[in-house]
Amino acid sequence: MTPNELKSLIRTVPDFPEAGIQFRDITTLIGHPLGLAATVRHLAERAKACGAEAIAGMEARGFIFGAAVAVELELGFIPVRKPGKLPIEIIGIDYALEYGTDRLEIDPGAIQHGQTVVIVDDLIATGGTALAAAQLLRQAGATIDDALFVIDLPDLGGAQRLRDASVEVSTLMEFEGD
C-alpha cells in the first residue's frame, strides 16, 4: 500500500480531546493487517536508509511502530519510557508541555556510545516529546540524526523544531490543520 492509501486508513475524530481539535486516530490503521504491515515496511526502508543501528520509540504508540520496525530490520529497540517505569538506574529529562511539564526516562546501558539510533513514532505535532527523546538519547551517547513518523501535523511546527535541533524528519503522511 502506498502512503496515500495508508492515509485513508486514519480515522479523524472531531472535537477530541477538546472542541476544535481534529484527532488523528491510528487505531484504524493498526487494526488493518495490510495497512500496518505496509506502514512498518515504509518506516523500515527509511530507517535502513538512515543507517539505523537501533530504533527508539516513545511510550506508548511509538512502541507499536518502533518495535515493529526494529523487528523488521533485526535491530534492537530502545524504549523511551514515562517516569517510574524502569526498575533500574535511569537517566531522564524533563520537558515542557503546553500546560506544565513531563518527563522521559531510558536505560543508559541500552545504548552503545556513538550508536546510530533512529526515533520512530506515530505522530509529530508540536515536537516536544520527540525533541526531549532526541536530547535524552544523545545524552546517553547515541547519534540521533533522524526521526520517522507515520503522521505529521505541519501546522503545529514539530518537524521544524526537530530540524532546528539537527534531527532530519521523515513522515509517511501529513494532515493540515489541528
Structure, described:
- The chain is of the alpha/beta class and 178 residues long.
- Helices cover 33% and strands 33% of the residues.
- The strands form three sheets. It has a five-stranded parallel β-sheet with strand order 4-3-7-8-9, with helices on both faces. A two-stranded antiparallel ribbon has the order 1-2.
- α4 (61-73) links the parallel β3 and β4 (76-80).
- α3 packs across α4 (61-73).
- It is globular and about 40 Å long.
- It starts with a helix and ends with a strand.
Concise overview:
This protein has 178 residues and is α/β, with parallel strands linked by helices. Helices cover 33% and strands 33% of the residues.
> Would you give the CATH topology?
Rossmann fold
How many domains, as an integer? 1
Runs in which pLDDT lies below 50 for 5 or more consecutive residues are: none
Q: Assign an overall shape.
A: globular
Radius of gyration using CA atoms only: 15 Å
For the largest sheet, list the strands in their spatial order: 4-3-7-8-9
So how many helices?
Answer: 6
Strand content: 25-35%
Number of DSSP E strands = 9
Domain Phosphoribosyltransferase: 54-143
Pathway: Purine metabolism; AMP biosynthesis via salvage pathway; AMP from adenine: step 1/1
Subcellular location: Cytoplasm
Subunit structure: Homodimer.
